[in-house]
Write a structure and sequence with these properties.
The protein is of the alpha/beta class. The chain contains seven helices and five strands, in the order αβαβααβαβαβα.
Length: 195
């Protein structure tokens, strides 16, 4: 592999992150406010996604339950992507499209937040989870890319859509990780003050 090709990945990533900074900073701040308000009211955050987005959901929950950069009490967050028995039982007994919605139905409460991560915006099981979150009177924060896909048509006025301005999956996922870190840092800053 050529060094130039590798350097181009870095340039493309940086350009996408700078473009995302311009469009996402304000809605990320709103998402931090929403998540903090839910946590301050004794609610929790559920997170879901497929593939790399599943890993992002787990990463987010780990940062809240454990810690991000500063010590603090654990915060209630749950990745709906981690229980193999639940994932396979729901997929087998119902349908894979219901794998997250069924968990939202069982675990979600009014005032909770669903962090729905789908690079394309078209993941059927994430869309079903969003619909179920609305039934449970939860707020949805959606992380997407590629124009947002079908997520655009499923969000309520009270939801927040963080759509990365890129068509490339790798670039979208890179900005998703940075967004997750911004969310965690913002929650910590609201809890403990800015350093």
């Amino acid at each position: 592999m050529s060094v130039e090709r590798i350097q181009q990945h870095f340039r493309d990533s940086a350009a996408t992150q700078l473009a995302a900074m311009e469009t996402l900073a304000v809605p990320i701040a709103a998402a931090v406010d929403t998540m903090f308000a839910a946590l301050a009211n004794g609610n929790k955050i559920l997170a879901c996604g497929n593939g790399g987005s599943a890993a992002d959901a787990q990463h987010f929950a780990a940062e809240l339950i454990g810690r991000f950069e500063r010590d603090r009490p654990g915060l209630p967050a749950l990745a709906l992507t981690t229980d193999a028995s639940v994932l396979t039982a729901v997929s087998n007994d119902y349908a894979y499209d219901q794998v997250f919605a069924r968990q939202v139905r069982a675990l979600g409460q009014p005032g909770d937040v669903l962090l729905a991560i789908t690079t394309s915006g078209n993941s059927a099981n994430v869309l079903a989870a969003i619909a179920e979150a609305h039934e449970r009177e939860m707020i949805v924060i959606a992380l997407t890319g590629k124009g947002g896909g079908a997520v655009n048509d499923t969000l309520a006025d009270t939801d927040i859509h963080l759509s990365v301005p890129s068509e490339r999956t790798a670039r979208v996922q890179e900005v998703h990780l940075l967004t997750i870190h911004c969310l965690c840092d913002g929650i910590d800053a609201m809890l403990m003050g800015e350093e």
